[in-house]
Design goal:
The structure is a single chain. By secondary structure, the chain is α/β, with parallel strands linked by helices. It folds into 3 domains: about 180 residues, 3-Layer(aba) Sandwich (Rossmann fold), CATH 3.40.50; about 150 residues, HAD superfamily/HAD-like (Rossmann fold), CATH 3.40.50.1000; about 55 residues, no CATH class. The chain contains 16 helices and 15 strands. The strands form 3 sheets. It has a 7-stranded parallel beta sheet with strand order 4-3-2-1-5-6-7, sandwiched between helices. The two termini are about 40 Å apart. About 40% of the residues are buried.
Length: about 400
């Protein structure tokens, strides 16, 4: 029997009982309990009170971790009586050690303590290269904090994969439990389609822009993804070469404001890294197998040349999982002659029976919608402004809970 998953919940001792967050905390506790998750929290009033009430109402258990007796005598040293298991510790370090063992982390709005706890947990996961334990942020206030962090461009883009801004309690529980069925419990959010068409770069494999950013970050250079994507597109259109070369990356770096001397040193390294096999995302093969097993046609569109795309697919074992491939040299180039509608039409299905899954950094989804098909944005690294698109997902694992086969009908 596997041990029960534990979810650590953080928030303020000063949360207003009349606030929306206070009510959300009880809903969160109830849903966590019903999902079979054990909750860890402080247990001394504020956001913990409705959280504990909700957990108990849902038939769950709470571990309360208290510093109040020794460090905060002005607070009520008596923990919430509904908490079945209590631990009294003597230092913040001990508290963080207990919380850091959780399988997921949910943060309400808080003060300096909550902010420091978020930073500590994020840093710990980063050091461990642990992308399996999510950090969920439940408030508009947290989104503003993240926006400011992103503007500084000093955090590697891949570490935003750990962070999940959510608006609803059920969305938060879906993330930490991995059960996205509860997020899409509204029948109107579920799509029945005959074909799922993926942008190759981003949803399935690392995009050239991602490889470029990662290479630059290895050298201590940080750039915004949106600017990199735009420069790639402009430079690709102006380039006479069918494949990016050193001069291509030299122009990108200069467009990002890198001086000529530094750009000349960086460009060969970035070009060399770009020639390596891009990494396959860990959820890609599973998603393709899932849809194939259910009779949904799978396809990809790619700005790469077909031989290159075929080589990548073969190296990662995807060739038998993708039914249709459209590349630049198929004369089906997204940024060239044919429209997105013509690309989708070439898959052989009515457009309303196709869903397009695009990368959050490129913004191809408006073109897909304009062509008359549904589009879902896979935004792995929080490249899009928060709340910009209600059809945004963070993983292909989530996609499996949004799409069903129309062939069965």
């Amino acid at each position: 029997m596997q041990p029960r998953k534990q979810i650590a919940v953080f928030g303020s001792f000063l949360t207003n009982p009349r606030s929306a967050e206070f009510k959300m905390a009880e809903d969160l506790g109830y849903l966590l309990a019903r999902a079979g998750l054990r909750v860890i929290c402080g247990g001394h009033g504020g956001i913990a009170d409705p959280l504990v009430t909700g957990v108990v109402r849902g038939g769950g258990e709470v571990l309360g971790v208290s510093l109040a007796k020794t460090k905060y005598p002005e607070r009520n040293a008596r923990m919430n009586p509904l908490i079945a298991e209590k631990v009294h510790i003597n230092s913040v370090a001990e508290r963080l050690e207990i919380f850091s063992k959780a399988d997921g982390f949910i943060f309400f709005t808080g003060g300096i303590g909550t902010l420091s706890e978020f930073a500590f947990m994020w840093h710990s996961l980063q050091l461990e290269a642990d992308f399996d334990r999510p950090l969920v942020l439940l408030s508009a206030g947290w989104r503003r904090v993240l926006d400011k962090l992103r503007q500084g461009q000093m955090i590697k883009y891949k570490y935003y994969r750990l962070v999940h801004p959510c608006d609803r309690a059920k969305d938060a529980v879906a993330v930490v439990s991995g059960d996205y069925a509860m997020k899409y419990d509204d029948p109107e959010e579920f799509l029945f389609k005959k074909a799922v068409v993926f942008d190759f770069d981003g949803p399935l494999i690392e995009s050239p822009e991602e490889v470029f950013l990662k290479s630059c970050e290895n050298l201590g250079c940080f750039f915004p993804m949106a600017q990199v994507v735009e420069l790639f597109r402009r430079t690709e259109k102006a380039s006479e070469s069918r494949e990016p070369d050193i001069s291509f990356y030299l122009n990108i770096l200069k467009g990002l404001g890198v001086g000529s001397a530094a750009a000349s040193e960086i460009a060969p390294y970035v070009w060399k890294r770009s020639m390596e096999m891009p990494e396959l995302y860990d959820d890609a093969e599973d998603a393709l197998r899932y849809f194939k097993a259910r009779g949904v046609t799978t396809g990809i569109v790619s700005s790469r040349l077909f031989p290159q795309a075929k080589k990548i697919m073969s190296a990662h074992g995807l060739s038998g999982l993708v039914d249709i491939v459209r590349c630049r040299d198929n004369r089906l180039e997204k940024a060239g002659g044919q429209s997105f509608g013509e690309i989708l039409q070439s898959f052989g299905f009515p457009r309303e029976e196709i869903v397009y899954v695009g990368d959050g950094s490129r913004g191809d989804d408006p073109a897909a919608r304009a062509a008359g098909t549904d589009a879902i944005v896979l935004d792995r690294h929080l490249n899009r402004p928060f709340g910009q698109n209600p059809s945004t997902i963070r993983s292909l694992g989530e996609l499996k809970h949004r799409i069903g086969s129309a062939k069965a009908g």
